[in-house]
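A.,

Following up on our hallway conversation. Structure tokens first:
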């Protein structure tokens, strides 16, 4: 055993803890600020129309730069990019927490997205290259998948506690408590080095420009559809431009010597199916967090903390199922039946949520669906993430990992725009031709939520069909000691 391999054996579980902390921070930051937004708006005095930019700024920067962030890790060393992402995220969070104006807050959120785009792919690629033994890889991805699936719910709970008992600013400051200790640990546990040692480190500039601009336009287009309309010229131009730029990106990648995203990464059947699973799940899961949060707070009069606590059963179900699925079920059955089953359970959960009304109770009408969606997503997240990075060339691990986060971001953007638009239309339609009263307004709001749940169920059903057709039916082969492992050095001695 080489010194580096010995160090890997010694430190790998500590490295998993550091990676898990970083992943939790990135995932929960997508929801923790949502809870704080009304208080921040009252404090800084910005309008309802402007409020969405606190969320959108993060999504635009994060979603558009993920592929570049993933490739930078491959070229310049994952430790360097990982630590830079952690420190940068902490600094951006501190700026946001101290923001005295709306503009500073939005700029800080965009900076968070930028450094998150460095951090997220580096975290997943480090996980992929650290754990190569099949049994240990299964355990590690079970933990990582549980964090990815449960982090958003943790963000709701933590955001509620911090907002209610401290200040909305602590929803940003709290990232320093995650990022700085993780960065210090990463400096100790991880060693330098880069994947393309001996090769000039070059970034594919045409690919980076077309990919980043295309993803930016797509995310912006779907955000515009939510706030303006699908027929608004800004929405149409952004979406069309995004599609054209991404098509140009594919053409560029076929021709350049060192592509930003080697097409072999996504054209592999197993990985392509895993990316689709992550994207479709992101689109469908949006209905759970957004509309159930509204329903719990506005219809059932839950406080922010109570709302966060309400999601804990789902979080527990995800964590238990994710760890079990990768350790026990994937080696025996393969990823396809688990992911398809998870999608079907997601659809079932959404159908359960369509039964909520203004007279509903949490235990009878919300909790069963949360438990079902928790089990379903536990069957999807960990197997999909493990499959998305399994067997990839070590020099492509960063960009392969970035595709996972890109799929989540694009799927989430589509889900946000589509389901929000459908819910708003259903709510408006319910109130047409009647004299609104508090009771009718409450019923119309719930009608909008249930309409979104119906369509979310359809998204999961489509996901079950698509992933069932694309993913390979056979269990994944065991990972060889060299497959998916970064060349030395990876770990500190």
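Then the amino acids I'd put at each of the 493 positions:
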């Amino acid at each position: 055993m080489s010194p580096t391999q010995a160090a890997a054996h010694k430190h790998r579980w500590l490295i998993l803890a550091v990676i898990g902390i970083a992943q939790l921070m990135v995932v929960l930051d997508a929801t923790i600020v949502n809870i704080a937004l009304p208080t921040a708006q009252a404090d800084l005095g910005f309008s309802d129309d402007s409020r969405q930019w606190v969320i959108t700024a993060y999504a635009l920067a994060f979603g558009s730069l993920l592929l570049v962030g993933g490739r930078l890790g491959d070229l310049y060393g994952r430790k360097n990019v990982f630590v830079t992402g952690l420190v940068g995220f902490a600094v951006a969070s501190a700026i946001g927490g101290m923001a005295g104006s709306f503009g500073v807050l939005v700029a800080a959120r965009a900076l968070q997205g930028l450094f998150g785009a460095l951090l997220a792919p580096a975290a997943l690629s480090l996980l992929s290259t650290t754990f190569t033994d099949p049994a240990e890889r299964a355990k590690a991805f079970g933990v990582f998948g549980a964090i990815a699936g449960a982090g958003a719910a943790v963000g709701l709970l933590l955001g509620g506690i911090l907002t209610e008992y401290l200040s909305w600013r602590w929803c940003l400051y709290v990232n320093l408590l995650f990022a700085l200790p993780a960065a210090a640990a990463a400096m100790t546990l991880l060693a330098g080095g880069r994947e393309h040692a001996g090769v000039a480190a070059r970034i594919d500039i045409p690919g980076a420009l077309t990919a980043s601009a295309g993803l930016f336009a797509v995310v912006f287009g779907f955000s515009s559809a939510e706030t303006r309309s699908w027929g608004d010229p800004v929405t149409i131009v952004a979406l069309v431009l995004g599609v054209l730029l991404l098509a140009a990106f594919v053409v560029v990648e076929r021709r350049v010597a060192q592509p930003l995203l080697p097409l072999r990464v996504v054209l592999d059947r197993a990985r392509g199916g895993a990316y689709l699973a992550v994207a479709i799940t992101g689109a469908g899961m949006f209905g759970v967090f957004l509309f159930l949060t509204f329903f719990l707070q506005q219809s059932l009069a839950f406080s922010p903390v109570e709302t966060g606590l309400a999601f804990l059963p789902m979080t527990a179900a995800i964590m238990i199922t994710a760890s079990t699925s990768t350790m026990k079920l994937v080696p025996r059955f393969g990823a396809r039946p688990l992911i398809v089953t998870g999608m079907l359970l997601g659809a079932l959960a959404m159908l359960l949520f369509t039964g909520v009304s203004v007279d509903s109770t949490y235990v009878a009408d919300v909790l069963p669906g949360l438990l079902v969606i928790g089990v379903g997503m536990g069957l999807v997240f960990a197997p999909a993430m493990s499959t998305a990075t399994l067997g990839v060339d070590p020099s492509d691990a960063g960009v392969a990992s970035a595709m996972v986060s890109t799929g989540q971001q694009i799927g989430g953007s589509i889900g946000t725009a589509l389901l929000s638009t459908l819910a708003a239309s259903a709510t408006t339609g319910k109130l047409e031709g009647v004299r609104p009263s508090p009771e009718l307004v409450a019923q119309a709001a719930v009608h909008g939520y249930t309409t979104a749940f119906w369509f979310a169920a359809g998204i999961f059903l489509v996901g079950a069909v698509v992933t069932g057709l694309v993913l390979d039916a056979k269990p994944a082969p065991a990972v060889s000691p060299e497959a998916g492992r970064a060349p030395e050095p990876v770990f500190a001695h």
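The first helix runs from residue 3 to 44. Curious whether your intuition agrees with the design.

B.
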